[in-house]
Design goal:
By secondary structure, the protein is α/β, with parallel strands linked by helices. It folds into two domains: about 30-115 and about 215-280, D-Maltodextrin-Binding Protein, domain 2 (3-Layer(aba) Sandwich), CATH 3.40.190.10; about 115-215, D-Maltodextrin-Binding Protein, domain 2, CATH 3.40.190.10. Helices cover about 50% and strands about 20% of the residues. It contains 13 helices and eleven strands. Helix 6 links the parallel strand 6 (about 135-140) and strand 7 (about 165-170). The termini are far apart.
Length: about 280
């Protein structure tokens, strides 16, 4: 009987220990501040690129900070609206939707603007946009605001995506460039920052056919449950970030020059893309 009792005691102790470990892990996760970052790079590159900001936030918030993302733009926006992130770095059209439809709080924005570029391979030039008919256009994600701008512009030339030409999504600007240079795509949508992600030897083989639009850069937004005091403090430390050592490191890696207060004027500039974005999200 005693061996059985001993085994029962050990089993209870084991279960209790596991429960304590799980509880501690859950408490740690709950106490972490989550920084959500749009999946424009691989998980490894995102982690490396945003590590200076993570360290800076951790220092000033005095709590663990984790970087999280999603497998694509759609799932990232879904996670944003679900409140998975305490602070979200998101494109202007997603920020505007989150603000208008779910009460998210725009705090700051990167400068300078992003742009939308239509590019082709130097050894396979496109005569004009209409030459895309029955061809393939490489993009990073159909929901990227730069892609939305490009598709709308191409449509003004009489070509409708998925009817007159194919749209092929790629994980990164670099993979879209490989598709272009290998002949799988006739053109691609990129940005000035996206071009910097492409290895220099490949970048030299790509020609910018047309600058399509200037678009507000990423916004940093807080979820609606953020208190006024916390939102004000987050905004304060974000605006101070570019002058700190971590901020200088971060800006040097990303090509941005500053963080400025979120502007309603700039948020409204995304309104022309909301109808198409809502349709694409359905």
């Amino acid at each position: 009987m005693r061996p059985l009792c001993n085994r029962l005691v050990r089993l209870v102790f084991c279960v209790f220990s596991i429960a304590l470990q799980f509880s501690a892990t859950s408490a740690q996760a709950a106490s972490s501040f989550i920084l959500g970052v749009l999946p424009i790079h691989s998980a490894r590159v995102l982690s490396e690129r945003y590590e200076p900001m993570r360290l800076y936030l951790e220092k000033h918030l005095q709590q663990p900070v984790r970087i999280e993302s999603a497998s694509d733009f759609r799932r990232f926006h879904e996670r944003t609206l679900r409140g998975d992130f305490d602070l979200t770095i998101t494109p202007a059209h997603f920020a505007r939707l989150a603000q208008k439809e779910a009460g998210f709080l725009p705090l700051a924005q990167f400068v300078p603007d992003h742009d939308s570029l239509l590019v082709y391979a130097a050894d396979r030039p496109l005569r004009d946009i209409k030459a895309l008919k029955n061809q393939t256009l490489a993009v990073i994600d159909r929901l990227a605001i730069t892609v939305t701008a490009a598709l709308q512009h191409i449509e003004t030339h009489g070509l409708v995506a998925d009817r007159d030409y194919r749209v092929m999504e790629h994980r990164t600007h670099a993979s879209a460039a490989y598709s272009l240079l290998s002949g799988l795509s006739a053109a691609a949508v990129s940005t000035s920052q996206g071009m910097l992600q492409i290895p220099e030897d490949l970048r030299d083989k790509i020609v910018v056919m047309q600058h399509i639009a200037d678009i507000p850069a990423f916004f940093l937004i807080a979820k609606p449950t953020t208190s006024k005091r916390q939102a004000a403090y987050l905004k304060q430390i974000l605006l101070a970030f570019p002058a700190e050592a971590e901020g200088i490191d971060f800006l040097g890696q990303t090509g941005y020059t500053n963080l400025t207060p979120a502007s309603e004027t700039n948020l409204k500039r995304a309104d022309i893309f909301l109808k198409e974005t809502r349709r694409a999200l359905k």
